[in-house]
Amino acid sequence: MPRLLLVAHAPSPNLKRLVEAVARGARHPDIAGVELEMRSPFDAGPEEVLAADALILGTPENFGYMCGALKDFFERIYYPCLEHTQGRPYALFVRAGNDGRGAVSSVERIVAGLRWRAVQAPLVMRGPFDEAFLGQCEELGMGLAAGLEAGIF
Ligand SMILES: Cc1cc2nc3c(=O)[nH]c(=O)nc-3n(C[C@H](O)[C@H](O)[C@H](O)COP(=O)(O)O)c2cc1C
Question: pTM, whole model, 2 decimals?
Answer without folding.
Answer: 0.98
